[in-house]
Backbone:
């Protein structure tokens, strides 16, 4: 928890200063992006932020205000904590805490095993990913198109018709740019 004690000198009869952020704590995904914030105040203010948080449309003002920040992509696997401060005459009177999760790799396939018909067929695989990916196989009876992509997408597996009566098994490797791998097994046999 962040606790901050602020001392404000006020002359008799002065209106008390008030500052507040909405929300007062913001949770952001590793991908970052634009976030909309609200500041409530009855005086002049200046904003200051952590180096990975960029103030977009304003850094100074008076009274209530809406403003946007851009939170950078977090390339580290560790969560990080930053801030946006509202200052008055150089003194911090309000702080918004920004908590950003660490980056983690995602690579998933909608199917990991296919029971192909003897006459062959097509099978669409949905890919859930936050990285670039590629698919390959060493089997000449299994074909994948497209053989690469970035982020979420899909590819089609085409299995040729069987030429004999012997069952066959093949593998397709879905590999991510971070080293993640998903193996997809293809089994084909006569019923």
Residues:
């Amino acid at each position: 928890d962040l606790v901050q004690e602020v001392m404000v000198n006020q002359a008799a009869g002065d209106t008390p200063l008030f500052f507040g952020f909405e929300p007062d704590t913001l949770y952001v995904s590793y991908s970052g992006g634009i976030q909309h914030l609200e500041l409530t105040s009855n005086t002049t203010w200046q904003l200051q932020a952590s180096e990975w948080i960029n103030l977009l449309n304003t850094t100074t003002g008076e009274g209530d205000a809406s403003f946007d920040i851009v939170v950078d992509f977090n390339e580290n696997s560790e969560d990080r904590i930053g801030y946006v401060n509202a200052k008055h005459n150089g003194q911090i009177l309000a702080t918004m805490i920004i908590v950003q999760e660490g980056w983690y790799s995602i690579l998933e396939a909608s199917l990991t095993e296919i029971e192909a018909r003897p006459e062959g067929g097509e099978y669409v695989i949905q890919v859930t990913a936050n990285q670039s990916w590629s698919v390959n196989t060493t089997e000449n009876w299994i074909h994948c198109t497209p053989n690469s992509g970035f982020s979420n997408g899909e590819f089609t597996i085409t299995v040729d018709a069987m030429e004999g009566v012997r069952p066959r098994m093949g593998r397709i490797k879905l590999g991510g740019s971070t080293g993640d791998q998903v193996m997809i097994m293809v089994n084909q046999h006569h019923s």
